[in-house]
């Protein structure tokens, strides 16, 4: 497939990261955006002015950046000096251009040969609008400024973020841009409906729709967090430095006195260990040591932190295939029905991709005692249980999380053998492997080339997704983290019709103990201070809204062209009204409130938080009524 020029891929890589950065800063209320619709009928529908402060003054020194928009974002309909306050700014609202007002021309473009006529029109329209409000503006004052790290720094210095943190986040943003560009320049072949589940897992092209340093594109088709921000002693990783699609799984021998095993961990992994140990006669005494699989990239952290761990020789390894999340892998030659979740010391959003003792303790217990009692339709929803785990025994959980492992169900191969096509949901909304494509994989592979076909597909998708995830929330007070990375869609391999879903990963779910006990007779068994406990039932509703509605269905509605016209949201609202009893508190939480506080991803980074969510109680970061009524 043809690859755009290096200058063009650099531009789109910068925009992929920077648009997400500005989306977060505006939606979380850290910057303030105002929008002015334009009367012209071309691709550019409005101008968005992003301010350092909340007062919409047309003075260059208070304007952070200016963005041409291709759609009208969610706004406060009360105008301020003819401008409308933007409540939720999505990267898909933006055209791929960002400007700043400067004292002199500071265009970042050295090679302009790739710039198409549309880009010149957007800039001219933006300049004309600004000139009407700022008569003293000259054309050279409107500069192309799409550099995410520079725009982050100009914001962060205004609010006095500490210099080390400003520098760290700037490095993460630059890492995102560098690796996103690599993906654009090494596109993977388009998947087909006959592609295997692992091919779909490894075809995510851009990834997380709003977080600037959690974009999840792939390295030669593999899905990895673009930032790949490693912390010493791990080496930095960029481009094709390491084949993350096929990591080597090494073996660590850990003193039994230093290890916490849950479930039948060693028994489940026995087939792997048998094959690997045939390569050596030098194995530590099994009476004193237990063996656990380790991601090869994690070895420097393990050697640095744990002095009593023995790493078996390099030939005592097996190659795995990575799933979307980077740290989860399958080894189909050995395990048909199991996958492994491993630690990798890369920083993504606010967290290392490690596995905390909270997760290794909770997952197997939730799987054994709670999952069988949940109210679910087993024909529509499959739950991949976490069967066993291992974690280093250490009082400091920030140390222990660097040496742990979870063994969980993997139904994908079995489902394929039974006539299903299994697709990680995040892949459905990806572009067709070129940065300037406006066609998604779901449109291309399912042949959704008319509005009628799109409506039919979306209607069934929304219906089944709600039938899958609403019942445990409504009846048991349990919300799965049903975003696109954790959720797999199952299609009939002959008809292409959606059958149902599979859900995996329990580290981020929410449960309300009182509701669970009343409906199932059990409670979550957790370590103290576990973040999966919702003190109020409203916390369960917020989690499911954020993951299923905002992060999952919202993206599908947008790529199918049913966001701005409201068709997708009317379908969703119709099914919500039919499935949620009016007397149930979820009905009020989702269908009657003006908004639902959302997860503030950049604020969490600024505050250096991970397990403790930041949710904006004042700004309606995810305006439920506005979205559902569109």
From TrEMBL:
It holds the Pfam family IucA_IucC. It comes from the Eukaryota. Residues 457-605 form the Aerobactin siderophore biosynthesis IucA/IucC-like C-terminal domain. Residues 268-429 form the Aerobactin siderophore biosynthesis IucA/IucC N-terminal domain. InterPro entries: Aerobactin_biosyn_IucA/IucC_N, IucA/IucC-like_C, LucA/IucC-like. GO terms for molecular function: acid-amino acid ligase activity. GO terms for biological process: siderophore biosynthetic process. This is IucC family-domain-containing protein. The lineage of its organism: Eukaryota, Fungi, Fungi incertae sedis, Mucoromycota, Mucoromycotina.
């Amino acid at each position: 497939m043809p690859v755009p020029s290096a200058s063009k891929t650099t531009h789109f890589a910068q925009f992929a990261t920077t648009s997400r950065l500005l989306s977060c800063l505006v939606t979380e209320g850290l910057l303030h955006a105002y929008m002015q619709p334009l009367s012209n009928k071309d691709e550019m529908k409005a101008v968005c002015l992003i301010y350092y402060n909340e007062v919409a003054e047309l003075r260059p020194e208070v304007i952070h950046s200016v963005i041409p928009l291709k759609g009208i974002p969610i706004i406060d309909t009360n105008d301020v000096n003819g401008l409308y306050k933007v409540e939720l700014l999505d990267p898909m609202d933006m055209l791929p251009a960002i400007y700043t007002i400067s004292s002199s021309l500071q265009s970042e473009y050295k090679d302009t040969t790739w710039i198409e006529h549309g880009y010149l029109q957007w800039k001219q329209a933006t300049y004309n609008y600004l000139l009407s409000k700022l008569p003293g503006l000259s054309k050279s004052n409107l500069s192309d400024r799409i550099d995410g790290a520079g725009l982050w720094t100009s914001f962060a210095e205004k609010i006095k973020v500490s210099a080390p943190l400003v520098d760290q986040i700037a490095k993460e943003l630059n890492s995102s841009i560098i690796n996103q560009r690599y993906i654009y320049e090494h596109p993977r072949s388009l998947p087909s409906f006959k592609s295997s589940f692992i091919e779909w897992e490894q075809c995510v092209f851009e990834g997380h729709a709003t977080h600037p340093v959690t974009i999840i594109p792939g390295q030669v088709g593999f899905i990895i967090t673009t930032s790949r921000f490693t912390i010493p002693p791990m080496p930095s990783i960029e481009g094709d430095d390491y084949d993350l699609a096929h990591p080597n799984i090494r073996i660590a021998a850990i003193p039994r006195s230093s290890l916490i095993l849950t479930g039948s961990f060693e028994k489940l992994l026995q087939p792997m260990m048998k094959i690997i140990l045939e390569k050596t006669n030098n194995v530590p005494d099994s009476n004193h040591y237990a063996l656990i699989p380790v991601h090869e990239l994690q070895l420097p952290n393990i050697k640095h932190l744990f002095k009593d761990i023995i790493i078996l020789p390099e030939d005592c390894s097996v190659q795995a295939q990575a799933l979307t999340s980077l740290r989860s892998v399958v080894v189909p030659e050995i395990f048909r029905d199991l996958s492994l979740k491993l630690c990798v010391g890369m920083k993504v959003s606010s967290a290392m991709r490690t596995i905390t003792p909270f997760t290794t303790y909770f997952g197997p217990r939730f799987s054994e005692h709670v999952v069988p009692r949940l109210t679910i339709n087993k024909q529509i929803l499959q739950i991949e249980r976490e069967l066993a785990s291992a974690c280093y025994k250490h009082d400091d959980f920030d140390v222990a999380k660097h040496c742990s492992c979870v063994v969980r169900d993997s139904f994908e191969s079995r489902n394929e053998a039974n006539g299903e096509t299994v697709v990680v949901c995040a892949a459905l909304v990806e572009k067709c492997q070129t940065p300037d494509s406006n066609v998604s994989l779901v449109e291309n592979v399912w042949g959704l080339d008319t509005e009628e076909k799109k409506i039919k597909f979306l209607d069934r998708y929304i219906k089944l997704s709600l039938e899958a995830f609403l019942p445990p929330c409504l009846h048991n007070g349990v919300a799965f983290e049903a975003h696109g990375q954790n959720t797999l869609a199952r299609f009939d391999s002959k008809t292409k019709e959606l059958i149902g879903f599979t859900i995996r990963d329990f580290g981020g779910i929410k449960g309300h103990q009182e509701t669970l006990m009343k409906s199932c007779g059990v409670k979550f068994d957790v370590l103290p201070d576990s973040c999966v406990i919702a003190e109020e039932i409203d916390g369960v509703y917020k989690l499911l809204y954020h993951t299923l509605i905002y992060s999952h269905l919202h993206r599908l509605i947008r790529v199918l062209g049913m966001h701005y016209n409201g068709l997708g949201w009317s379908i969703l609202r119709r099914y919500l009204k039919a499935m949620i009893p009016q007397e149930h508190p979820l009905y009020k939480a989702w269908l009657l409130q003006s908004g639902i506080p959302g997860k503030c991803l950049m604020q969490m980074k600024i505050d250096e938080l991970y397990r403790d969510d930041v949710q904006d109680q004042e700004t309606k970061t995810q305006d439920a009524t506005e979205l559902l009524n569109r």
